[in-house]
Amino acid sequence: EVQLVESGGGLVQPGGSLRLSCAGSGLTFSRYHMSWVRQAPGKGLEWVSYINSGGSTYYADSVKGRFTISRDNAKNTVYLQVNSLKPEDTAVYYCNAQTWDEGRLWDYWGQGTQVTVSS
């Protein structure tokens, strides 16, 4: 069974930082492209950042320069370093794993970790 487990969320003051982690199990992690997606209260899903299996990274304009995505395939873990947090970054942060194999898309989601930015 594939599992993605996020951790590292919490309550932080504006300007603060957190390091979110997403640990995968039951999948060949290195083959998967990993994303972070967030959902703010009362809003839809917003893509935040992406790192492909080769290590190339992409960011939403709203977080560029403040967030950094990375991965450690030896630990089956993807990270999101979130700096200079703003109240509008408050959301549940989900990780997503995707790959194409055997002619189909394999797509998995974690349960999310809450990030609250408030003074």
Give the topology.
Blueprint: E1 3-7, E2 10-12, E3 18-25, E4 33-39, E5 45-51, E6 57-59, E7 67-72, E8 77-82, E9 91-101, E10 104-109, E11 113-117
Parallel strand pairs: 2-11
Antiparallel strand pairs: 1-3, 3-8, 4-5, 4-9, 5-6, 7-8, 9-10, 9-11
Task: Describe what you observe in this structure.
The chain is an all-beta fold and 119 residues long. It has no helices and 11 strands. It has strands spanning 3-7, 10-12, 18-25, 33-39, 45-51, 57-59, 67-72, 77-82, 91-101, 104-109, 113-117. Strands 2, 4, 5, 6, 9, 10 and 11 form a 7-stranded mixed β-sheet that branches. A hairpin with a 2-residue loop joins strand 9 and strand 10 (104-109). The chain is elongated and about 50 Å long. The mean pLDDT is 97.
